[in-house]
Amino acid sequence: MSLGKYDVIIIGAGIGGLVCGALLAKKGLRVLILEKNSKPGGYCSSFKRDDFIFDACVHSISGCGENGILSEILKEIGIKDRIKFYSIDPYDKVIFPDISISIPQDIEEYIQKLCGMFPEESVAICDYFKELAAIFRNMVEIPFRAKDFLKVDVPKIFKYRNQTFKDILDRCFRNQKLKKILGSQWGYAGLSPSYVSALYMTIVLMSYHIEGAFYPEGGVQVLPDSISKRFLEFGGELRVNSLVEKIIVKDNGVSGIGLQDKEEISADIIVSNADAKVTLLQLIKNDNVFSKRYLQMIRTMKETPSAFCVYLGVDMDLKGRELGKCNYWIHDNCDYDIYYRYIMSGGEIDGRGGIFVSVPSLKDPRVFSTGKHIVSLVSLTSYYNDWDKIKDRVADILIKKASQLFPGLVGYIIKKEIATPKTLQRFTLSPEGAMYGFASTPEQFLMYRPKNKSPLERLYLVGQSTYYGGGGVLGAALSGYFTSKMIINSLN
After folding, report:
1. What is the pTM of this model?
2. Kind and range of the H or E run holding 379
3. Which pick of 45, 127, 222, 231 has the fewest CB atoms within 10 Å?
4. Domain contains 428
5. How far is 485 from 81, CA to CA, in rounded Å?
6. Omega before 90 cis (within 30°)?
7. How many domains does the chain have?
8. What are the φ/ψ torsions at residue 44 (nearest 5 degrees)?
9. How far apart are the first and last CA of the chain?
10. Mean pLDDT, the chain, whole residue set
11. How many CB atoms lie within 10 A of CB 106?
């Protein structure tokens, strides 16, 4: 059976695919989105266990303020007023054995804090944040607000395109403790300071300072659900539980897709929000449609680590423990680069590398006012085949670490769920459950990533492994936004 011909078929209902689909449907194009899971969102989704609703992988979202970039995208889609966002400020707190610091959204406030702690570095701290703000404008703000985002002048990109974040820190500062603090949120990128692109890490950090940090009322599933609903109102079609098995190629271009149940659906344009390697090396069955050089580039691209996640439902009054809405990074005095190399070589989580802690029930005041709360624990890790044998032991390590924030935590746990890299791979089909797709090293970022318009006619790519992608909700949304503009321009 065939549903007939569509203008555009989008593979995957992650944020990139949903944004792209909604904006294309708004223009009157006949758009079909196919999602392998039972609901949209990808990593930006939630799941329910008993009385608890757990957010899968997203714990805060940038750009949702009045003039934020994500807000402007949601306004263009027509759903900004349908979602209530709570500001998270301070948005992070970093805890070391000998020092801790809360990180506010306001850059000037953060600068004053750091200058008070490291007065000998005051001038350097001010210059550092001024430069990061300029990089952010070049990377995100200017292209987004330009009439022709493909022709903007962005000198900071060329200046820093081959540098790591550690290069910036070492050039700006001498104090090792200060550099330790400024590099402490490297888990947001999935790469330690010596490996992550200076440009990408700047986007990650400055998006929260310039664009703000927020949490949607009702949990992160509200965002993809709201975009999906608007997409349907525009006349789009969304099919869940629909796994795409192949992209059909005809006459040097795409002509449709084939589903796992052997149904084939035709379309003029295909947009894939699936992992780029999955799209280009598995869904397209014919290697001859791409050059050997292009295929070699895709095959050799390296992914970020995956993650080990523990979701806890606790019968514990956390509001009385002087905890804020912020996320927490609990670190040992372990060298970030040494630990990164350890996990990438297959080292088992042992607590040395620290953990990320989020308490969404403190961010959304409507949730669990009875005293029950949600605690999410995350640690980056590699993919092993024997996770089922060790996952309970690793979960206990993370829970023990989190007990620094919540003394006696283990005695209050009434629900526990664990997601290993195998879980993330099964859910998203991302190779080995990569948390952020292709690693955003200087060698694999921006112009060194797959372009959103692929070499194959009428095939486009969106998501975190693409040129306008990168990790996080804002990056995914921007990839969908820019790709929709490319498609609309190509049809005019």
Report:
1. 0.95
2. strand 372-381
3. 127
4. no
5. 23
6. yes
7. 2
8. -90, 70
9. 32
10. 93
11. 12
